[in-house]
Amino acid sequence: MAKHSIFLLILAVVSLIALGITMMASTTFEVAHEGGEDYVTLWRQLVWLGVASVGCVFAALVDYHVWLRWRWHILIATGVLLALCYAPVIGIKINGSRRWIGVQSLRMQPSEFAKIALIMALAGWFAMNEAVTRTFLRGFVLPGLILMGIVALIGFEYDLGSALLAATVGMGVMFVAGTKIRYLALIVIMCAGGLWAGVKYLPNRFERIMVTFDLEKHKEGLALQQWVSKLAFGSGAVEGRGLGEGRMKLSYLPEAHTDFIFPMIGEELGLRGTLAVVLAFALLVMAGMVVSAYAPNRFGKLLGAGLTFLLGMEALLNMGVTTALLPNKGLPLPFVSYGGSSLIAALFAVGILINIHRQGVHLTWDQLPVIRRKRRWTPQL
Question: Is 70 helix (H, G, I), strand (E, B) or coil?
Answer without folding.
Answer: coil
